[in-house]
Design goal:
The structure holds two protein chains of two kinds. By secondary structure, chain A is an alpha+beta fold. Helix content of chain A is 35%, strand content 16%. Chain A folds into two domains: 76 residues, Beta-grasp domain (Ubiquitin-like (UB roll)); 72 residues, DNA polymerase, domain 1, CATH 1.10.150. Chain A has a five-stranded mixed beta sheet with strand order 2-1-5-3-4, sandwiched between helices. Chain A starts with a strand and ends with a helix. Chain B is an alpha+beta fold. Chains A and B meet through helix 2, helix 3 and helix 5 of A and helix 1 and helix 17 of B.
């Protein structure tokens, strides 16, 4: 068993877990942050994407012990002071989700993408979310949502 | 603030919690529950000769190991055959845990309960099951022709055989009509297996209250009421002591309508036995090998037609692969057989299917539920007729359309709900006109020839379908207005992402005249509504939407009656706007609906200021009448059911332009257009979302997704790495247009929309590729490698494949 201490959504957290505990299970079951979802358990669907020191990673392919001392942001950490983030609002405004199971992975991925590409083209957006599977929406409204989020971010910045 | 919300693109009320990570899916519940894992068969067909747990029992954290031998009466019987049918003469279902024989890779044999899933899987690895191998049966044509049997008491592996025939108007049999037709064609079509693949797998979580002797079960299901009845029956519990809740469900697409899954019985059983909370969350491999697939069929088609392309006779023989078991009966091939007719008047029609056992995962409905196969058959037929006659493909279709003045149109068959296949309304010529405008059908030949000059291969395809939606028997709705002015709506069917919390709130707000913010909706929770059928067959909006509207109308009638007393007005002169009951044209003579709710419930005890109005010394009713009038009930609430005489028929038409790479045979969809008619739309934004998602699944089925079984019955691509579901990069921009032909069958005039998008896609893409390549496409899905091979074979055969004229 190993003690794992890290910062999750800005809060210091720790838990004692076996070496084989996946980060996805660690977040969901040891820390109770069930917003991160697991769709395929082998890094293909992207539903479990979290931000590790700001970069998107597949939490189902990451051991919890390997992120000790790092910062992790999950979907629960995207809203600030109870206000949904621009990316979250973009998805809600543009009907960018249906069942919502894959959504946390798209939100975290888009959050990192828009931070680095504030004014993306259509192709940029498609490239950015091309590693995430959604079975409900057909993606059209997801692409629209990311563009809308970019607009909302620009409004916030101005 | 408006209360006319029906028909508006209202934003979803579900989304605030889902985007914040506050959804509650099955595996998000039961943090302290014991975890379940299963030992599943690695073999497609074998006798179980022994189960050795000696190496497993010392694993720390193990709680229990169960095999079939451990199961009590009720749990040890085969699972129910949900939809019996006279033609299903050899229906067979699985056991919760395999008894003696396994018939597909993935069948559960041993259940392990442990302190967490990691440990449960450790235990599974240490359990040794020994087998005596039997010959696996894989592939439809092998199954019907070969000597090996999936079930030793099912000869020829044929579970069901059914013929429906609609003779010609002059009484001639279809085959005679075809034999005498001016032109005939004969061909074979082939559709492979795919599967629903919701992003969230199945899952069950059970809590037993030993003091209260009551059971609460959460299941990622499309039917919580029916799961509840199955659990009560199998475990011998009184129904009122069992409650089942579908929490947020991460997609269904059909697979979660099947019930009870073995786990839905085993997990509650173990929870009671152990007196501990128990949970099972399906992993992705389990979902591939132990849930359900769909689509696989081989069709043999003969068609007779005249010079104009009118179909005089159509004779279709279908081999349908239903896998190892038939828990959902033969609904899928019945739907294929009936919905194959689409928007057309077919002179005479004979359809015969054999539903066949194979040693593969069972087949149950996947979005579209047999329609994509039927539409593939009919639309390929239309294309072949057009090519044979040298006619435009849309003209041949138009020649066969049912006309707007011919509704109701009786196809003279029996539909999947056991009722006549009578189309209620539609306007197919107008749909086609809109579609041709949208895609630029008439301009395409110019585009195609210009592209050809640049060495590019473009093709266009079209497909039409009719979809029976809103099948019965019924759904119900309950609406309660409480004294705080809130409106609580519940219905028994479940939600898997359709946005029911939003559309049902739109209906209730519109019917009652209250702000939508006051309305809350609960679905799929048997604590709130006990009678329901489930969410499948594009039925939720039609069934529960109408039931909720009817319940609201009851509530409104009562509210107006009570308000009329208070306002000393005639109920006929009252209306409700923004939550205020008022005299029409005199807004000042008004009373809040919240106050009406207070007055509706004569009280002895006041619990707040509002409630004082209804207490016994505050009211001024007649001393000669009881406080609750005869035939009335206290409270401002109402319940009603909607039970349709038969299904309502939505329709649509799709067209696509594809480009095929001359060298690599890569297939790219350049444009995709949809015209859709689901009657009156409750929320056009959500209807469009359903279409987008359906088309995306259709594109997956047309170009990428298939279940690859080897001859041993091993599923070779049971992972998201190898089963190719489309990402954003594979899905074209989908252009949409709508028709709203109201259904005359229900109060709201609506038709279902959930499955529509997926239905014609394979037919459309096949037609477009055929147009680009001038090679016959009779098998879907088609990969670049498949197309490359087809090009090769058509070259070596010395000519472009030609449609065969059997005349």
């Amino acid at each position: 068993m190993h003690d794992v201490s890290l910062i999750v959504n800005g809060v210091p957290r720790e838990a004692r877990v076996p070496a084989r505990r996946l980060l996805s299970d660690f977040l969901r079951h040891d820390l109770g942050l069930t917003g991160t979802h697991v769709g395929c358990e082998h890094g293909v669907c992207g539903a479990c994407t979290v931000l590790l020191d700001g970069q998107p990673v597949r939490s189902c392919l990451t051991f919890a012990v390997s992120v000790a001392g790092h910062e992790v942001t999950t979907v629960e950490g995207l809203a600030k002071d109870g206000e949904l983030s621009a990316v979250q609002r973009g998805f809600a405004e543009c009907h960018g989700l249906q069942c919502g199971f894959c959504t946390p992975g798209f939100l975290t991925t888009a959050t990192a993408f828009l931070r680095d590409h504030p004014a993306p083209s259509d192709d940029d957006v498609i490239e950015a979310v091309s590693g995430n599977l959604c079975r409900c929406t057909g993606y059209q409204n997801i692409v629209k949502s990311v563009h809308r989020a970019a607009e909302l971010l620009a409004e916030e910045g101005s | 603030m408006t209360t006319k919300l029906f028909g508006e693109p209202v934003r979803r009320r579900e989304d605030a919690r889902l985007v914040a990570g506050n959804g509650r899916y099955l595996d998000d519940l039961g943090a302290n529950a014991l975890a379940v894992a299963f030992v599943r068969s690695p073999h497609a067909h074998a006798l179980i000769t022994g189960i050795d747990v000696d190496d497993a029992i010392d694993v720390e954290g193990l709680v229990a190991i169960y095999t079939w031998e451990d199961l009590p009466a009720g749990v040890r019987e085969p699972l129910p055959l949900l939809i019996p049918h006279p033609a299903l003469t050899h229906g067979r279902t699985a056991y919760c845990l395999a008894k003696d024989v396994v018939r597909h890779v993935g069948e559960p044999i041993v259940m392990v309960v442990a302190t967490d899933r990691y440990i449960a899987e450790d235990v599974c690895e240490r359990i040794q099951v020994s087998y005596e191998f039997l010959k696996p049966v894989v592939g439809l044509e092998t199954a019907v022709s070969g000597p090996n049997l999936v079930h030793e008491d099912v000869p020829g592996n044929i579970g069901a055989h059914m013929i429906q025939e609609v003779a010609a108007k002059d009484g001639r049999a279809t085959r005679d009509v075809i034999a005498a037709a001016p032109h005939t064609l004969e061909f074979r079509l082939d559709i492979e297996r795919s599967a629903c693949m919701p992003m969230e797998g199945k899952g069950v979580y059970a809590r037993w209250d030993a003091d209260d002797r009551s059971l609460r079960v959460y299941s990622s299901t499309q039917t919580s009421t029916s799961v509840r009845m199955a659990i009560a029956a199998k475990l011998g519990l009184p129904l009122p002591k069992v409650e089942v809740i579908a929490p947020d469900v991460g997609g269904g697409f059909g697979v979660k309508i099947v019930h009870p899954w073995p786990e839905e019985i085993l997990v509650p059983w173990a929870a009671i036995l152990l007196n501990r909370e128990v949970k099972w969350s399906e992993d992705r491999r389990e979902h591939f090998i132990s849930s359900a697939h769909e689509r696989a069929q081989v069709q043999h088609v003969k068609v007779g037609f005249d010079d104009e392309g009118h179909v005089l006779g159509l004779d279709v023989e279908i081999l349908h692969d239903h896998g190892a078991y038939t828990p959902y009966g033969i609904i899928v091939p019945i739907i294929t057989s009936t919905q194959l007719l689409g928007p057309y008047k077919i002179g005479s029609y004979r359809v015969e299917f054999f539903s066949v056992y194979t040693n593969t995962v069972q087949v149950t409905p996947y979005r579209g539920a047999g329609r994509p196969q039927g539409v593939f058959c009919m639309e390929r037929t239309m294309d072949k007729i057009a090519q044979y006659l040298g006619k435009d493909r849309t003209l041949v279709r138009a020649a066969n359309f049912i006309q707007p003045d011919e509704f109701p149109y009786d196809q003279q068959m029996i539909f999947q709900d056991g009722r006549p296949l009578i189309y209620d309304s539609g306007d197919y010529p107008e749909s086609l006109r809109k579609l041709k405008d949208l895609i630029g059908w008439d301009e395409f030949p110019l585009m195609q020839s210009k592209a050809a000059e640049e060495g590019r291969k473009l093709g266009i395809g079209v497909g039409c379908y009719v979809e029976g939606t809103g099948v019965g028997p019924y759904e119900g709705g309950h609406v309660q207005v409480t004294s705080d002015g809130r409106v609580h709506v519940s219905t028994g069917l479940t939600s898997q992402g359709q946005g029911h919390e939003t559309v049902f709130a739109q209906i209730a707000a519109t019917e009652l005249g209250v702000p939508i913010e006051k309305v809350s909706v609960v679905t799929g929770d048997t604590r709130r509504f006990g009678y329901a059928v489930g969410t499948f067959a594009s039925r939720a909006a039609v069934m529960s939407g109408n039931a909720i509207a009817l319940a609201c109308r009851k509530v409104k009638e009562k509210a107006l009656r009570i308000a009329a007393d208070a306002l000393e007005a005639d109920p006929a002169d009252l209306e409700i706007t923004d939550g205020m009951v008022h005299v029409v044209g005199a807004p000042s003579a008004s009373i809040p609906l919240a106050t009406v709710a207070v007055l509706s419930n004569p009280l002895r005890y006041a619990f707040d200021e509002e409630a004082k109005r209804a207490t016994q010394f505050a009211t001024s009713g007649s001393m000669d009448k009881p406080p609750v009038a005869e035939g009335q009930e206290p409270g401002l609430e109402g319940k009603d059911y909607y039970s349709p005489v038969r299904s309502t028929f939505a329709s649509g038409m799709h067209a696509a332009i594809v480009e095929t790479d001359p060298d690599t045979a890569e297939i790219k969809i350049l444009r995709y257009a949809v015209v859709h008619d689901c009657g009156k739309m409750i929320n056009p934004m959500l209807v469009e979302g359903q279409i987008h998602g359906g088309v995306a699944q259709g594109v997956g089925g047309a170009l990428y997704e298939k279940m690859v079984y080897d001859e041993h019955g091993q599923l070779l691509n049971a992972s998201f790495m190898d089963f190719l579901m489309p990402y954003v990069t594979e899905i074209p921009f989908i252009e949409t247009d709508h028709l709203e032909t109201p259904s005359p069958l229900n109060p709201l005039g609506i038709k279902g929309a959930g499955e529509a998008g997926v239905i014609p896609v394979s037919a459309v893409i096949a037609g477009a590729i055929e147009d680009a390549e001038k090679i016959v496409i009779d098998r879907m899905p088609i990969s670049p490698s498949d197309l490359y091979a087809l090009r090769d074979s058509s070259r070596t055969s010395g000519a472009v494949s030609r449609l065969r004229n059997t005349q």
